Fold each of these.
Amino acid sequence: MNHNLKHENIVKTVNLLCKRISERFPESGLSKVCVELGIIAEESESRCEWIRKPQLILRLGVGILIALIIAILLVGIGTSVRFSSIQGIEITDFLQVLEAGMNTVILIGATLFFLVTTETRRKRKRAMIAIHQLRALAHVIDMHQLTKDPERVFSTGQRTASSPRQTMNAFELTRYLDYCTEMLSLVGKVAALYAQDFEDTVVLTAVNDVENLTTGLSGKIWQKIVILHRFKNVSKK
């Protein structure tokens, strides 16, 4: 049984959420943010496909470079061995040659590691750009619900000139906050797509950070929803 996230299902869910928001709150800022999330979700398919596929041309080029480096290294070692066997070598000269050889081996090893990880680093960069975009979008969603306080729905206190406008009733505010939690959840699901088929610890850590961020922001919003329901229940008594 396949338990992987389906890209097309996530896109359908985001598009459906966009319709629900636009029908309930037409021309609202939240509906525009949801449209942006839908665009990012659709783009994630091509991005994940690019990350998932092996870059054969890059691998071929790296393989040729590695073969050339090893060939040059072997030729250099062979030349040094023949020269030392003919001329002879003292202990101090041998230690100097050994130290220089060790430094060369370390340098070559670092170069080979850099070449071998080139493909991974390219894919990681592409994934991290997309994940950073999703992280920023999560904060934008949080900004939209920032001034949506349940207390303002039932408060009879005097408002100041700078007080946020309260245009929603209790039901509408509940739906608005609920839409925000759904969007945050979908942000986390889109981010998870990048770690699903790409085993990289840096990307996985970044995805987990986005999941923790969206979960924390959703928790704050659900506290508002709970408070809103309590106000509604008290007002009915």
Amino acid sequence: MGDSHVTERVISQMLTELDGLEELHDVVVIAATNRPDMVDTALLRPGRLDRLLYIPPPDEASRLAIFKIHSKDKPLASDVNLEALAKESKDYVGADIEAVCREAAMLAIREYITPDMSPEDARKNAGAIKITMKHFQAA
């Protein structure tokens, strides 16, 4: 209600593009979603998006690699155990892990910077900020 039928218009336009009036050669359409249960069945008919591939969440080794990527340039404390984080984050995807790393960094910054601290003091001592395992677990 009140959405001006945007969803229906988008699906209608996609169907028009997929079916088209002219035959397309050597064109492959690839779509991705994290909500396959919400895809309109008209899009899944043969000749449209008729092949479905399930890509499972990353395994533990892949999650560890993703944690390494997203924590690479962050000031980690010596107690941070990326292997333990990878083990604890079953069913997390890359975006989830990125969000955890970002939130852990923000928690460390919020813990360090207090309302009574001047901006100059915060900048001067920013190098002392360390992200600890406690921050990751809270995130």
Amino acid sequence: MNLVEMIALVRRDLHDEDEADYRWTDDELARHIAHALKDFSGYLPCEQQATIATTAGSWEVDISGITGRVMVEAVEYPVGQFPRRYQPFALWGDTLTVLGGEVPDGSNICIYYGGLHTLDASGSTVPSRCEDLIASGACGYAAVEWATYAINRVNAGGVATPREYLDWGKQRLRYFRQELKRLGRQNRVRVRSLYKPYYPIVSRTTDHGP
């Protein structure tokens, strides 16, 4: 699905398909779609990887070139071994510090990270099963925005119309955020089965003494 198709889907859900009298412009709906897409990326980011050259003798790696980064999931170094060797790491701003026992020697390091999803005229990185969810979030943002704008303004639907849009928009956003949390939990379980956690798991029940 591309952006034009998503706008059409959102219009259908908003019952705003009268081309002679649109309630929202395409640019307004595109902005609400972008808002929902950013929220979605925070819970279910686009899985990507980047190969970066290290600096010999330095534990630090500059990852400022990875744009649209939401989070870093795993760090592989050295690259190309079997089984793969994932290193513990720390992240501060755009500097990733490898915490493993092997100091980088200038060879490549592989960063597995989650990035922002894209949705434009050429296509989308959003899984097809989640397209309706993005539309639901965009509808919620659009309805709440219009209801806020319409307060104390004359409208043909009567004084209850802005409140009805506000309530409907809040319901859509509530559903949208609940689904994001559910998908986020599922994604964490799936990803953790592929990669070792960043840091050792600390027992909350075992007392090792002083």
Amino acid sequence: MEETTELAALDANVTSCRRCPRLVEWRELVARERRAAFAEETYWGRPLPGFGDAAARILILGLAPAAHGANRTGRMFTGDRSGDFLYAALHRAGLASSPVSRRRGDGLELTATRITAAVRCAPPANRPSVEERDNCLPYTLREAGLLGDVRIVLCLGGFAWDAALRLRARLRPELPAPRPKPRFGHGAVAPGEPWPLLGCYHPSQQNTFTGRLTAEMIDEVLARARELAGLDAGAG
């Protein structure tokens, strides 16, 4: 398919990006110095492309790769506790072929789902700057434009929610901005074109260890995402 070829070209373009000097320096430093537990591994150490089904009906949008997670493994939300929590939930929802994702190329496949991030490089302290966020926007804009089957964008956290609102404004500039601005919340839905947004607390250790986000809560959100994407029997 033409869209698959264009996505592959976009992914290659993403992985060679050096637009943000601070992020380039940090991701490469982490990849060289490595955490003791991963001292024998070769880190990815580059920007992260999206991962998943080119015919995705659900687009999952996160914040950025983790320094010793995706920045190590080369796959979004892989290699840390956040990813373990997310992929287990995706498997329970029938959207992932395995409950565990170890690294890029491990054979795991997503069904009707693609995972991407608002910022493609691991940022220091997990806090990208506004300029870094905006430098990444064209990549996500292009990615979203190529995913013509998407019916719902699942936003993991407030940063992703705001990024998705910016994406909608860029993709459909002829439409007025919603007033008041849709507020992020777990389970919140923001109708709009070209797709509605669905909020979910980020599966960070801070949220999952404290019980702010439980397995039952993310299961409910993924069930809602399936419904909004028209993946369930009887859905339109």
